[in-house]
């Protein structure tokens, strides 16, 4: 459905519409700029955008943007940047120096990696990386240094392992790892005491570190999604009865012993369960 | 040695065998003769053994059979006071290797007169019995009762800034003998002077309705905060999370605990997902999150949505219909399969 190559014939009606939106925005100094679904392929189609320093929100979802110019970081007042559903394959390093950026949506793109030093955002609170091609091998070293993060969406990527540095994200309330290839979870997730949404649906997990039992996942404000994994029988049994039973079980002495036995005698790693070849993000 | 001044006397006796005690001569008839304690003198011979002058007002002092005027006696024989340096006439206190006027010999700590009550030598100082007991008590780490000056072996009772044996007092209300659990009550609130304080036994104190702080369990004599069905010292009524006092700022109650605005919302989820600020006006609640009404928008295109807008959800994020339909078909197929597997949560919401 998504046509990859950009058409050679300039789509004049869309082009003019983009410019019109920009002009109107400038006239009333509107701090929120909506350019979703305008067929934009490059930033050159948005002349003067990088000088509109007053804007606090920029929405460019559902376009065909491949590259973000480093100059975007000139927009120092930007708090919300939405680039969902574009054709991004890489990002400029300058992005992470944006001083006020709080919400960054990069979901449904074609990112295979993130620039070195990406984790330097001073204020980032919500980072949406859903549906890309990221894995532990392509994350920059300082990725888990974004202590201000309260929501991290990494569903539909290619992670097999998660760094133990995740424990640094002390303010994390939402962590989505749905439909990756996760084989195990680090025990440091148990340190994320403020976590109230945790989704590991559709991975290759077999066991859980007992430290997960420390998380408050049974209050009515918490959502813990675990289905679609290859859990060992005791975990699968507890899950059948309910999350609260599972959490009690993870804290029990029985499980502690069982877990250390699993660590020395690891359960077989299940094969990847989702065929990712069909993912749009794979298009090169 | 305590010489006493003696009145001089004159009187007539038989002249024949009378002679002057000083010069040994006889007396002329009608001559004035001085008679003192059975001895006789010519008037001109009855003089000070030192200065040969008559005794002023007839007062003399005798020492080793010789008579002296007051001045010469003092110069020759009278003791000097160890404190003021003056001669000590009359009663002399000999103590601590010196002589003292009775009202110059005082306790070195409390300055009370020691002449009649006796004293105790303590480290080179003369102390009264009470002060000595106090010094000893301090050495033992104990208090001395301010009333009976005895050592307090058990818990002392503090009252008006001093310590006492509790049994010297009775409860102001019921008259029962007090123990150390008695409470001192400021009888005139607002006055700092503790001379006005009174003592009550614990039972009466509790009945007096003096509020007890729910945090420290001590009586509250200053401002009282009443909240959560208890009383609190202003500085003890604090946020259950950050433990900072509210000091009159608004607090929020949850399950019998009080929270500051920030922590109440942080803990109980009324922070807007977009602005991360406490939601002041109406709250939009959905997908395990809350939004300011004007911040509720599609998570993909940022278009504002309201109660009536139909939206889809994935990963507990809202997506408007237009955005959802632009998502990859294979993704939507997977979502649909997932939702069929968990039929409780139906989408669209």
TrEMBL record, chain A:
Q: Name one GO cellular component term.
A: cytoplasm
Q: Which residues form the Disease resistance R13L4/SHOC-2-like LRR domain?
A: 120-226
**In this record, what's one Pfam family?**
LRR_14
Coiled coil regions in record: none
- Alphabetically list the UniProt keywords: Leucine-rich repeat, Repeat
Cleaved signal peptide residues: none
Residues crossing the lipid bilayer are none
Full protein name: Disease resistance R13L4/SHOC-2-like LRR domain-containing protein
This chain's source organism reads Photinus pyralis
Automatic annotation (TrEMBL), chain B:
Entry-linked Gene3D superfamilies: Cysteine Rich Protein
This entry carries the following GO cellular component terms, namely: cell-cell junction; cytoplasm; focal adhesion
Q: Matching InterPro entries, A to Z?
A: LIMS1/2-like_LIM1, PINCH-1-4-like, PINCH-1/2-like, Znf_LIM
* Start and end residues of each LIM zinc-binding domain: 18-79, 81-138, 211-270
Q: Which Pfam families match?
A: LIM (PF00412)
State the compartments where it is located.
Cell junction
Q: SMART domains from the xrefs?
A: LIM
**Any one GO MF annotation of this record:** metal ion binding
GO process terms (BP): cell-cell adhesion; cell-cell junction organization; positive regulation of integrin-mediated signaling pathway; positive regulation of substrate adhesion-dependent cell spreading
Principal place where this protein is found?
Answer: other
Answer yes or no on keyword Phosphoprotein: no
Task: Note whether Repeat occurs among the keywords.
Answer: yes
- Keyword tags: Cell junction, LIM domain, Metal-binding, Repeat, Zinc
Q: What is this protein called?
A: LIM domain-containing protein
Question: From which organism does this entry originate?
Answer: Photinus pyralis
Q: What's the source species' lineage? A: Eukaryota, Metazoa, Ecdysozoa, Arthropoda, Hexapoda
């Amino acid at each position: 459905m998504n046509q990859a190559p950009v058409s050679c014939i300039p789509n004049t009606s869309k082009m003019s519409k983009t410019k019109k939106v920009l002009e109107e925005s400038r006239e009333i100094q509107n701090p929120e700029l909506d350019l979703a679904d305008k067929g934009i392929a490059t930033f050159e189609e948005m002349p003067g955008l990088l000088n509109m320093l007053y804007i606090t929100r920029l929405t460019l979802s559902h376009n065909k943007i491949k590259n973000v110019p480093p100059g975007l970081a000139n927009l120092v007042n930007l708090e919300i940047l939405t680039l969902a559903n574009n054709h991004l394959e890489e990002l400029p390093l300058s992005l992470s120096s944006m001083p006020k950026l709080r919400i960054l949506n990069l979901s449904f793109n074609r990112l295979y990696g993130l620039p070195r030093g990406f984790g330097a955002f001073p204020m980032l609170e919500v980072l949406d990386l859903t549906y890309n091609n990221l894995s532990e091998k392509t994350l920059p070293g300082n990725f888990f240094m974004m202590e201000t993060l309260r929501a991290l969406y990494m569903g539909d990527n290619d992670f097999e392992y998660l760094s133990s540095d995740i424990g640094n994200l002390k303010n994390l309330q939402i962590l989505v790892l749905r439909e990756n290839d996760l084989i195990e979870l680090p025990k440091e997730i148990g340190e994320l005491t403020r976590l109230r949404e945790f989704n590991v649906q559709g991975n290759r997990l077999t066991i859980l570190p007992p430290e997960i039992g420390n998380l408050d996942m049974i209050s009515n404000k918490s959502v813990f999604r675990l289905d679609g994994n290859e859990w060992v029988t005791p975990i699968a049994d507890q899950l059948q009865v309910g999350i609260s039973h599972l959490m009690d079980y993870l804290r029990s002495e029985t499980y502690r012993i069982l877990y250390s036995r699993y660590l020395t005698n690891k359960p077989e790693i299940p094969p990847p369960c989702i065929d990712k070849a069909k993912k749009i993000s794979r298009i090169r | 040695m305590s010489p006493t001044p003696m009145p001089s006397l004159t009187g007539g006796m038989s002249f024949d065998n009378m002679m002057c005690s000083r010069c040994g001569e006889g007396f002329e008839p009608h001559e004035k003769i001085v008679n003192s304690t059975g001895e006789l003198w010519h008037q001109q011979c009855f003089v000070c053994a030192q200065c040969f002058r008559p005794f002023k007002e007839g007062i003399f002092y005798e020492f080793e059979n010789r008579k002296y005027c007051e001045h010469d006696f003092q110069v020759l024989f009278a003791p000097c006071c160890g404190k003021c340096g003056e001669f000590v006439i009359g009663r002399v206190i000999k103590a601590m290797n010196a002589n003292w006027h009775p009202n110059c010999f005082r306790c070195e700590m409390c300055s009370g007169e020691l002449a009649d009550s006796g004293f105790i030598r303590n480290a080179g100082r003369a102390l009264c019995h009470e002060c000595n007991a106090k010094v000893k008590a301090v050495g033992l780490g104990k208090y001395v009762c301010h009333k009976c000056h005895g050592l307090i072996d058990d818990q002392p009772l503090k009252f008006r800034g001093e310590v006492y044996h509790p049994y010297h007092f009775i409860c102001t209300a019921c008259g029962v003998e007090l123990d150390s659990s008695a409470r001192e009550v400021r009888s005139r609130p607002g006055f700092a002077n503790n001379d006005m304080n009174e003592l009550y036994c614990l039972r009466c104190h509790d009945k007096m309705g003096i509020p007890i702080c729910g945090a420290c369990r001590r009586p509250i004599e200053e401002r009282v905060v009443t909240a959560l069905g208890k009383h609190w010292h202003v500085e003890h009524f604090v946020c259950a999370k950050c433990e900072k006092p509210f000091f009159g700022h608004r607090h929020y109650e949850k399950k019998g605990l009080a929270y500051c605005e920030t922590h109440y919302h942080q803990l109980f989820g009324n922070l807007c997902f977009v602005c991360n600020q406490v939601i002041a006006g109406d709250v939009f609640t959905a997908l395990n999150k809350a939004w300011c009404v004007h911040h509720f928008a599609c998570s993909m295109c940022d278009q504002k949505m309201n109660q009536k807008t139909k939206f889809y959800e994935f990963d507990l994020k809202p997506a408007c219909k237009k955005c959802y339909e632009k998502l990859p078909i294979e993704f939507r197929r997977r979502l649909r399969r997932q939702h069929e597997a968990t039929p409780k949560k139906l989408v669209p919401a």
